[in-house]
């Protein structure tokens, strides 16, 4: 069973949070897949990862770049794991049938969008019913606070 972490974004946007979480995954020696809602979002996030910090670099690729097996971070709209990743990041309300293939799944959702919050609650319930270990994280002025476990 995968460990699922739900990140409730209320203070910072996904584009501000995702690079830090991806960097932490790479520091652990993990490869990552970022599953987005659509192909346009994949390319937009890929562009953000190139420019988010002039002093940092997150090696990543998309379908347009090719060679997924060589990419430490793979951004996609498909339900896939072509780089043998240990961690899956779900954004834009994306879901995956491959969650059990990953060590960790991070579900990042917009806490300022009532529809996104309700959809995340539904995903939490399904994951809990499936027997996954769950952790819920909220943003505060100092960063992330673990608010619940399931």
Explain this structure to me?
The protein is of the alpha/beta class and 150 residues long. Helix content is 29%, strand content 27%. It has three helices and seven strands; from the N terminus they run βαβαβββαββ. The chain has a seven-stranded mixed β-sheet, sandwiched between helices. Helix 2 links the parallel strand 2 and strand 3. The longest helix has 16 residues. The chain is globular, with a radius of gyration of 14 Å. The model has no long low-confidence stretch (mean pLDDT 95).
Can you summarize this structure?
About 30% of the residues lie in helices and about 25% in strands. With about 150 residues, it is of the alpha/beta class.
Q: Tell me the strand percentage band.
A: 25-35%
What is the CA-atom radius of gyration, in angstroms? 14 Å
Number of helices: 3
Whole-number average pLDDT?
95
Overall morphology: globular
Could you tell me the number of beta strands? Answer: 7
Question: What is the structural class?
Answer: alpha/beta
The succession of helices and strands, N to C, reads EHEHEEEHEE
Largest pleated sheet: 7 strands, mixed
What is the helical fraction, as a range of percent? 25-40%
Distance between the termini: 13 Å
Residue windows where pLDDT falls under 50 for at least 5 positions? none
Strand order of the largest sheet: 3-2-4-5-1-6-7
């Amino acid at each position: 069973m995968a460990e699922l972490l739900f990140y409730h974004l209320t203070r910072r946007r996904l584009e501000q949070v995702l690079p830090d979480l991806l960097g932490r995954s790479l520091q652990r020696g993990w490869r990552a897949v970022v599953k987005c809602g659509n192909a346009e979002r994949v390319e937009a996030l890929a562009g953000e990862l190139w420019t988010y910090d002039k002093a940092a670099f997150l090696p990543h690729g998309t379908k347009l770049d090719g060679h997924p097996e060589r990419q430490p971070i793979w951004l996609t709209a498909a339900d896939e794991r072509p780089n043998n990743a240990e961690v899956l990041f779900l954004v834009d309300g994306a879901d995956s049938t491959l969650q059990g293939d990953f060590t960790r799944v991070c579900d990042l959702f917009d806490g300022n969008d009532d529809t996104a919050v309700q959809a995340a609650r539904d995903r939490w319930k399904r994951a809990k019913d499936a027997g996954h270990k769950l952790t819920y994280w909220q943003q505060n002025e100092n960063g992330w606070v673990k608010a619940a476990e399931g």
